C-alpha cells in the first residue's frame, strides 16, 4: 500500500507507523523503529494491545533488560481548535467554554471535546478556529458581561 497523506482525523495503519524510543536518561534514540507485529488480545486490566516494533542497533547501544519508553503518532488532527483544559468548564456531564465576542462581551457556549493533548483539549464542536476564549477566571464570567481581555501566556510544559 503506498504512503499517502492522512486526512483530518484519519488513523494510521500499522504499516504506516514509525516509533520513537526514549531512553532511560530521557534522550531520543537516533534510529526510528518500524512496526513488526501486534497481539490481537486486549489486556483486560489496562485496556491495551501489545505491539512489537523493530529498531536498528548498529552501535549495540540497546541491550536486553534496558528500560525505555516507546511513542508513536496514531492520528493527526488538522484545523481543530486546541484550548487549555482550564478554559473548559464541566457542568453536569456537559462542557462549556466562555467565548469573547468582537464587542468584548462574553458568550458561554456548550462544546463537545475530543482527546486531551498535554494540558490542552481538542474541541470537536461549538468553537471555530481563531475565536477568543477565556482561560483564567472562567467561574467569574457570565453571559453578556463585558470583559477587558488580556492575552493568555501558557506555562511551558516539561520535556518528556
In short:
This protein is mainly β.
Give your account of this protein's structure:
It contains no helices and ten strands. With 160 residues, the protein is an all-beta fold. Among the domains are: 14-72, Beta Barrel (Elongation Factor Tu (Ef-tu), domain 3), CATH 2.40.30.170; 82-133, conserved putative lor/sdh protein from methanococcus maripaludis s2 fold (Beta Barrel). Strands 5, 6, 7, 8, 9 and 10 form a six-stranded antiparallel beta sheet that branches. The protein has a four-stranded antiparallel beta sheet with strand order 3-2-1-4, with no helix packed on it. Residues 1-8 have low confidence and may be disordered. The radius of gyration is 21 Å and the shape is elongated.
Provide the fold topology.
Elements: E1 18-23, E2 33-43, E3 48-54, E4 68-72, E5 82-84, E6 88-91, E7 94-100, E8 106-117, E9 120-125, E10 132-133
Antiparallel strand pairs: 1-2, 1-4, 2-3, 5-9, 6-7, 7-8, 7-10, 8-9
